[in-house]
Amino acid sequence: MGVKGVMIDLQMLTFDVYDPAEFINSKEAVIAFLEEAIAENDPDFLVRTIGHIARSKGMALLARELNLDGSALYKSFPPDGNPYFLTVIKVLDNLGLRIKLERKSA
């Protein structure tokens, strides 16, 4: 039974897959996504976020600009990926970003 007596066939429903890369379309969006990922204090989440940002730019273009193999770059950022830190640094550099450390407050 559905809402107010209406039957709903769940097999008939379709859903789009949410892809964060589709919403990262400006420098401001890149910064916002990274700040939120850093605030989570989860390295895997941060790497996945950098992967979304890289895909938003286009992996093939990014690979050419970084002089890297496109398939290797793409494989570096799947949900269970574990890219080399150097790859992460190169991607961030290409996006005009760098990692800055600061002492956390006591």
Structure description:
This protein is an all-alpha fold. The chain has a domain at 24-94. Helices cover 50% and strands 0% of the residues. The chain contains five helices and no strands. The chain has helices at residues 27-39, 43-57, 59-66, 70-76, 85-94. α1 (27-39) packs antiparallel against α2 (43-57) and α3 (59-66) crosses α4 (70-76). The longest helix has 15 residues, at 43-57. It is extended and about 55 Å long. The mean pLDDT is 84.
Topology:
Elements lengths: L26 H13 L3 H15 L1 H8 L3 H7 L8 H10 L12
Helix pairs in contact: 1-2, 3-4
pLDDT < 50 stretches: none
The level of helicity is 40-55%
- Quaternary structure type: single chain
The chain-level mean pLDDT equals 84
Order of helices and strands: HHHHH
Tell me the overall shape. Answer: extended
How much of the polypeptide forms β-strand, as a percent range?
under 5%
Query: Could you give the distance between the termini?
Result: 55 Å
Class by alpha and beta content:
mainly alpha
Biggest sheet features: none
> What is the count of β-strands?
0
Number of continuous helical runs: 5
Based on CA atoms alone, the radius of gyration comes out at: 18 Å
